[in-house]
Amino acid sequence: MYTQSFSVADAPGQKPAAPTLSTENPEEMARFDARIDADGRIEPQDWMPEAYRKTLVRQISQHAHSEIVGMLPEGNWISRAPSLKRKAILIAKVQDEGGHGLYLYSAAETLGTSRDQLLEGLHSGRAKYSSIFNYPTLTWADVGVIGWLVDGAAIMNQIPLCRCSYGPYARAMVRVCKEESFHQRQGYEALLVMMTGTEAQKAMVQDAVNRWWWKCLAMFGPPDADSPNSAQGMRWGIKRISNDDLRQKFVDATVPQAKVLGITLPDPDLKWNEARQHYDYGQIDWAEFWNTVEGNGPCNKERLSTRVKAHTDGQWVRDAALAYTRKQQERAMKEAA
Ligand code: FAQ
């Protein structure tokens, strides 16, 4: 629905002209800045300023954690899907999200941070993950709405990341976006089917949209004026389009889809602005967003404890895989001797 083109133009006038200031290594820094200015890619073996490395580890690991924790709200519905077809689709989707997490952890590892360190950050509650996954999935319609709106917002944010300056992250994003596009379509299609059903089914869709709409708008992050990482992220070509501009693109793309679906978006201030050629929309509850990001949303504690339990329960699988690898290596050594 949104992924017809991966070549999204940078937001006009968003890239600051001033080069990065650093005393780390002036010659390497000049080469790095020149490559960024020329829209070139930085690869793992290339020199990079420590702050660039740190920013990428922060963003990529948060993104990876979001994919992995994001499996939980929908995973809760696999055993309750209304048909075999919906169950098969949902299993495939949840599995894809796990795969996205793994590509992203691998991309973060190329920056010199180990998988164990990344997971320790998540399990100790120090690392962030997307606020959206701390809300409950109350009905089957929530699964459709997550596909349509949550995956929709994720794609809108991730298409520009396909051109991120860090090669491994950008390349991972191409495949992730293609899969997210399927996720979004399956969610929208599930809702379209429900909207041809009974009044109770239609009401269930509307109720789910009412609960998820504002949370999805907050997914794009704080307003540009309150976004401490944006200016540097854009300068380095990590972020290509600002939080507010992506949010606006999402609203503009979603309103016509809501009309086709036959639901109302829960915002009395939502209206077309002829002068701006965009939809105006109401105020997001940022206090609620920060409260959730800080760990106090309705499901934060449950999500984290489920994640930690899954990791602990899976220890025997990791032990068995390591034992098998060791055995294979010993056998190869013996045969070579
Ligand atoms: N939730 O200065 P900025 C998905 C934090 S994947 C929690 O604007 P930045 C797939 C931010 O980290 C969804 N925290 O930061 C799926 C920063 O904190 P820090 C995840 C948030 O990095 C679908 C602080 O606020 N996608 O859904 C959020 O320049 C269905 C200040 O913010 C990605 O991670 C938030 N929503 O911009 C899976 C995409 N927003 O680190 C399963 C990659 C902001 O300074 C089912 N990430 N914060 O302590 C990005 O594009 C960026 O990191 C942003 C934030 C845009 C999220």
From TrEMBL:
A Pfam entry, by short name: PaaA_PaaC
UniProt-listed InterPro entries: Aromatic_CoA_ox/epox, Ferritin-like, Ferritin-like_SF, PaaA, PaaA_PaaC
GO MF, any single term: phenylacetyl-CoA 1,2-epoxidase activity
Coiled-coil stretches: none
One Gene Ontology biological process: phenylacetate catabolic process
Region (Disordered) residue spans: 1-27
GO cellular component: cytosol
Name the UniProt record assigns to this protein: Phenylacetate-CoA oxygenase subunit PaaA
